[in-house]
Amino acid sequence: MKGQNKLFIAIIVALILGVVMGGIVHTQYPESSEGFSKNIKLLGTVFIRLVQMIIAPLVFTTLVVGIAKMSDIKMIGRVGTKAMLWFIIASLVSLTIGLVLVNWLEPGKVMQLPIPAAGDAGEVVANSQGLSLEQFVKHVIPKSLFDAFATNEVLQIVVFSIMFGVALANMGEEYTKPIVRALDISAHAILKMVGYIMWFAPLGVLGAIAAVVATNGFEIFKVYAIYLRDFFFALGILWLVLLVVGYLILGNRLFELLRRIKAPLLIAFSTTSSEAVFPKLVEELERFGCNNRIVSFILPLGYSFNLDGSMMYMTFAAIFIAQIYGIDMTLGQQITMLLVLMLTSKGIAGVPRASLVIIVATCTMFGIPPEGIALILPIDHFCDMGRSMTNVLGNALATSSVSKWEGQLDNHGGDL
To answer: Where are the transmembrane segments (predicted)?
Structure first.
């Protein structure tokens, strides 16, 4: 966690430097602001391209491994089915809440930025106009896996990954164990790369903020205040929905569960990582009365498939970036984005800022300039605190609810 704190401090320092540099150019050398912005934004381009570099292998390895390991669910039968139903419904609800509220509150409409005219994002915007049914089908079904990898066509990679994962899951664990293990190791290695690449984030922040302030002045900070206000309001709505559902299933024992998991919730909030509290969460759920076999099965699955806070943030952030660049998305495009995020986000564990990779991939796919991710990086740490805590709550409720449905929720006074 010390590394994450250092990264956060580095991003804050880069933010301040960017504001100072951009402010000096905006006030003292306004005639040079355009050239300065164009050159300083190259720092952001470096960061964005590093993130785009790992999108295809990350989606492929995490999805294939997640689906291939689903053969374990057959051994537990009903428990696995109920868990997956919870995960799917909770994910759809989280994504929908983010989508509805960001469209209602419109935090990105406070300030408008010009769409980058050159580079990958500009090409994507130009190519994304007038998407027909024929183009959509071609966009979804890959004619070549290598072509999909080369062009970062996330939906095509998802289609191949699902088919490949299902094939592995039905070939027998002993036969497929080496390749699943190899892909699992690859997925962890790529997630490790995410950590390395995030150390380039301060440069991306410096470039993005300096460029924006140099051309637009200090209006960006009004956007940040509104973005944080609206995001935490949306998060509050999601908490209300989760707690109401939890009360309908657990009754008054919901309040006991909240008392039990208050420490994991606070740790996740302060460290911005839901994985940091995994051992403590296992212990507290068993003390709450959940069957230890159900906990050991559902909780690891939930850490890949049931990240409610991260799911809501993905739709919220992606539409916010579209709004700030003045890109109007149709209802059909937004629903398609929701379904794409439903698939591509699976397998992204509770690693700080791993969800940003998926947001960049989604923005690129829907013609939204991925450079926009650098604009929200300075305040992403605060958003990450809220969504990590929400992920912990969602997984605790999922495990407790399935235990209750299975008649395996005891009330033993907190004894392990």
So the answer is: 7-26, 46-71, 83-105, 154-172, 193-214, 226-250, 356-379
d(CA 365, CA 303): 26
Q: How confident is the model at residue 355 (pLDDT cuts 50, 70, 90)?
A: confident
Which residues, including other chains, have CB under 8 Å from residue 409's CB and lie 6 or more apart?
Answer: 250, 253, 288, 289, 290, 291, 400, 403
Chain centre distance of CA 178: 29
The DSSP string of 183-230 is HHHHHHHHHHHHHHHGGGHHHHHHHHHHHHHHHHGGGHHHHHHHHHHH
Q: How far is CA 412 from CA 175, 401, 409, in A?
A: 42, 17, 9
3-state SS class at 413: coil
Dihedral of CA atoms 9, 10, 11, 15 in degrees, nearest 10, equals: 100
Contacts of 260 (CB under 8 A, 6+ apart): 284, 285, 287, 288, 414
Looking at the predicted structure, is the pLDDT value of residue 301 above 80? no
Alpha-carbon distance of 184 to 193, in angstroms, equals 14
Judge contact between 155 and 139, C-beta under 8 A.
yes
Q: What is the pLDDT of residues 249-293, one digit of tens each?
A: 999 999 999 998 888 888 778 666 676 677 778 888 888 988 777
DSSP of 132-153: -HHHHHHHHS-S-HHHHHHHT-
From the number of C-beta atoms within 10 Å of its C-beta (0-12, 13-18, 19+), residue 129 rates as exposed
Confidence at residue 77, expressed as pLDDT on a 0 to 100 scale: 63
What does the angle CA 163 – CA 164 – CA 166 come to, to the nearest 5 degrees? 65
Angstrom distances, CA of residue 199 to CA of 4, 43, 46: 10, 13, 12
Mean pLDDT of 188-201: 81
What does the alpha-carbon distance between residue 326 and residue 58 come to, in Å, rounded to a whole number?
30
Tell me the CA distances in angstroms from 252 to 244, 246, 259, 273, 404, one per residue in order. Answer: 11, 10, 12, 29, 13
Both structure tokens of 257: 């569960």
Contact indicator for 347, 62 with CB cutoff of 8 Å: yes
Inter-residue contact 190 to 58 (CB < 8 Å):
yes
